[in-house]
Amino acid sequence: MSNASQFKPNSEELTAAIRVADKEQAEGRFANAVGIYKAVLMQIPGYVEGQAKLARALFSLRRWNEAWDAFDIRFKLMDTPPQVSGRASDGSPRSIPRVSQPPIPKRLLVMSEQGMGDTIQFSRFLPRLVELGVELQVVVPQKLFGLLRTLDPAPPLLAGEVPSAVTNVERWTTMMDLPRLLDLKEEDYLAREPYLRADPVRVARWRAWLGDHHGPLIAFAWRGNPDHKLDPKRSARLEDFAPLAAIPDVKLVCLQQNATDDEIAACGFADKIVRPGPDFDSGLDAFLDSAALLACVDRLVCVDTSLIHLAGALHCPTDMPITNNWPDWRWLDDDTQNVWYPKLKIWMRQADDADYGAVLARIAAHLTKS
Q1: Would you kindly state where each structural domain of the chain is located, as residue ranges?
Q2: Lowest-confidence range among 92-101, 104-113, 186-195, 319-328?
Q3: What pTM does this model have?
Q4: For domain 88-188, is the CATH number 3.40.50?
């Protein structure tokens, strides 16, 4: 099936081949899937979904450079792909080209992309560029300024909400291009030390709010952005987290944005939950209160959201339940040591698990024994 000559340009054969490739990928035979996707794409190079599936299979095989190159398909999936313009010496506008592979230009603009969690995850590589002497400008959502200024060394930040022509820039790149641009190996991805910091003043305030508790302090969140196309697969229900409430002397710290009083009151373990209140993370900067609370608790248990990346950046011990039905590319279909965060444990939802509750029961049993 990996020979492109076996495919004739008719939709019936191609559709059948794609089904085979999808099955191979779903069942973990990624090398087979790569061969079939590549053969299909030789026949229909504009098949965007197939290109995205190919990239995912390459990530799962840890064929990193191929995967990063294939991951360029993400730009075709965006409503408005990033573009960067500057001013020529005569003041006229000029398009600035993107760079995604070495060599690294001396004057570089780095663009954040997609979700805040993506920006938090890949911001770890920005100090490397600063240390290499690159004259760096970084465009990110303004709400992340406070958090990203704790990078060491921190680069200059520009607000992505304010479009303007940049000056003194040779090339631009994106956050997710940085591993390829820096020519890093897999062992270089792991955040061996915390790369973001919680504000000590906020830490002291939230520690006082938590009070003197002698049992486990577990922060948790059960759902992500409902507008995300993958949200039905990655979000759980509040009730699924009931096994955590059975851990002796536990206090559960709710970090779920937009949780309602009625929602909490209706669950069977509301007496074990504390909520920070309506002003939590409500200022001009995002995640500063979350970061401070994560510095106070014993661990986070959370589905695949930006909180996972925040906790990982802070080295807060974290348990993440995910579905084994095509999880996000960065988790590699693997519940062993994660390549990004040393204190993250991934718990795969097995095929016979009816819902996330079964996974949370395994997590709770593990934490009870620990």
Answers
A1: 4-76, 88-188, 200-369
A2: 319-328
A3: 0.93
A4: yes
**Do 4-76 and 200-369 agree at the fold level?**
no
Is 219 within 8 Å of 303 (Cβ atoms)? Answer: no
Return the half-sphere exposure (C-beta side, CA atoms, 13 A cut-off) of residue 101.
Answer: 8
- For 188-243, give the DSSP string: GTS--S--S---HHHHHHHHHHH-S--S-EEEEE----TTSTTHHHH---GGGGHH
Residues 253-266, mean pLDDT to the nearest whole number: 93
Q: Which residue type, as a one-letter code, is found at position 106? A: K
Q: Are 329 and 56 in contact (CB under 8 A)?
A: yes
Residue 93 Rama label (left phi>0; alpha psi -120 to 50; beta): beta
AA identity, residue 155: P
Q: What is the mean pLDDT of the chain?
A: 90
Q: How far separated are the first and last CA of the chain, in Å rounded? A: 48
**Cross-strand partners of 299:** 218
DSSP label at residue 50: H
* CATH code given to domain 200-369: 3.40.50.2000
Alpha-carbon distance 159 to 161, whole Å? 5
- Alpha-carbon distance of 7 to 21, in angstroms, equals 13
- Fold classification of 4-76 is 1.25.40
C-alpha closest to that of 301 among 364, 351, 231, 232 = 364
The more confidently predicted of residues 324 and 60 is: 60
Instruction: List residues bridging with 300 in a β-sheet.
Output: 219, 318
User: To the nearest whole percent, how much of the chain has pLDDT over 70?
Assistant: 93
Q: What angle do CA 305, 309, 312 make, to 5 degrees?
A: 135
Instruction: Please choose, from the candidates 346, 348, 306, 303, the residue with its C-alpha nearest in 3D space to the C-alpha of residue 323.
Output: 348
Q: Which of 11, 24, 269 is nearest to 2 (CA)?
A: 24
